[in-house]
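Structure in, sequence out. Go:
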């Protein structure tokens, strides 16, 4: 009889990559909730079962940090009003959050959740979510826009981080 070895713990680099994937998935989940009206529970279950580490004809999905994903989505939903107000203050007056692209709206909510409710340093949140913006808008100027808005939000949420 052979004994199964316990799974190796992920390295720090793998943990970082899993958190990055969780951020991308959180933005996708928040977008999906907004456009489809699905509940947080249904969307999270779908992502955890069908996306995290899954392999399809189109390619392989990265393994995500499930706990980080759940916290981001949960905080984004539970603190949405506060996060949206903070985002509005960072946007120009003629472009309130309800007028911007729904993917960017989901991104700002996920980033705002991490910035206000989690201990992640603000510069890490900005860098990570600018990378998420580049994944969704590889040829656009959106990543610069995201950087500017998140920088403003971070100075409001965690001024001690600068």
């Amino acid at each position: 009889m052979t004994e199964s070895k316990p799974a190796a713990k992920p390295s720090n680099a793998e943990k970082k990559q899993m958190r990055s994937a969780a951020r991308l998935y959180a933005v996708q989940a928040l977008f999906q909730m907004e456009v489809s009206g699905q509940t947080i529970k249904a969307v999270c279950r779908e992502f955890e079962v069908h996306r995290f580490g899954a392999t399809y004809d189109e390619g392989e999905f990265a393994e995500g940090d499930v706990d980080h994903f759940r916290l981001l989505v949960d905080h984004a939903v539970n603190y949405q009003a506060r996060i949206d107000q903070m985002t509005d203050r960072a946007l120009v007056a003629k472009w309130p959050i309800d007028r911007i692209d729904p993917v960017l709206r989901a991104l700002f909510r996920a980033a705002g959740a991490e910035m206000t409710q989690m201990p992640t340093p603000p510069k890490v949140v900005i860098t990570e979510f600018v990378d998420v913006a580049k994944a969704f808008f590889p040829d656009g100027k959106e990543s610069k826009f995201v950087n500017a808005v998140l920088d403003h939000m971070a100075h409001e949420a965690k001024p001690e981080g600068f």
